[in-house]
Amino acid sequence: MSKNVVSQRRIYFDHNATTPLHPEVIKTMTEVMPAFGNPSSLHSFGRKVRQLVEEARQQVSSFIGANPDDIIFVGSGSEANNTVLSIFTCPSMQCMLQSQARTEIITTKIEHPCILETCKCLVDRGTTISYLDVDRYGKIDIEQLKSTITAKTGLVSVMMANNEIGTIQDIKAISQVVRSKGVLFHTDAVQAVGKVPVDVKDLDVDFLSLSGHKIYGPKGIGALYVKKGVPFCPLIRGGHQEKGRRAGTENTLGIIGLGKAIEMRRLEMKAEEARLLELKAVLKKGIQEKIPDIQFNGHPTDCLAGTLNVSFQGAEGEAILLYLDLEGIAVSTGSACASGSLDPSHVLLATGIPAEQAHGSIRLSLGRASTKEEVEYVLDKFPSVIKKIRSMSTAYAKRSKS
Ligand SMILES: Cc1ncc(COP(=O)(O)O)c(C=O)c1O
Q1: For the structural domain made of 11-20+268-401, what CATH number should be given?
Q2: Which end of the chain is more exposed for a tag (fewer CB within 10 A), N or C?
Q3: pTM recorded for the entire structure
């Protein structure tokens, strides 16, 4: 490619940030768009939309092994996560737990900012939060979890799959420990649902968060699973929507789109996972063979099929992102919410890699439309991009000479 010419190719390897709408989701949402009734209205306009919303609730609940009544539609994965943590400390919730003493929360150092920022806010309000470490692959240590739970612990929140490095936690083993101590358990499954099998009964969780736009559904819609009988109080108060658990007129189009997206996941997820694993293997091997001084981050096997996080010595992640963008390739330097900040990724730092290496890391996340041809194009462009950036790095030149 000659200087200053921007490639006409467009390759999207940033599916963990968001995904395009599935064509079937577009079709369904377009069809139902004229149905404008308020699902709380008793007349036919309202009843028609209510029926569509309840169909979506059925689709979402059955996909994760829940009952329809256990699903609360919310505005995003962030809202689902905020709800669980924030309501936990509210006096009426503590009262329902019948234990004023169980006020402490345990989470991990690699959670999404919507968990970590909420935790910071709760600390300011007097809640004690403990943060579990992770190993170099991003896995928590079950023994550390066991020893961190005390008689004061009321809630443990551990994400199922990490958005930056793709590492998948053993949620079933974690829930067994948490359960044995009589503590409530939440998992942020925003990056997991629709990519790996998730069954709330098998995992034995009390709360689970998911989001529409990570699975080819619309943005601004999420769902929170709350196990039957588990104490709950709403974060957003007002009307009686969602059986009094989340006030506000429902995002009906978003809910219906989410239901359809989940239905498509049911049909496509398994085959897609196998295909993405193959593509990732090609990508990984190619990077390894063509580019020196790299390190892959995340768990080698317990990892989302389409996620590959890699560090390049002597190259800034932001520079890599921008040069790849000129070649028409979209990747990310970390979670979309964290980009724009110059701090190195908290996830990578938690895995123990030095800040300098964390700065030189990018995430490639493949999805349902990714092809072998795209992977080959990326492998074709990648080495020269890294070479160009490294040629401008005096630190890298010095290191190579030594
Ligand atoms: C693991 C994880 N949790 C929560 C969220 C937030 O979801 P939403 O964008 O729907 O608020 C994200 C989004 O990046 C995520 O990756």
Answers
A1: 3.90.1150.10
A2: C
A3: 0.95
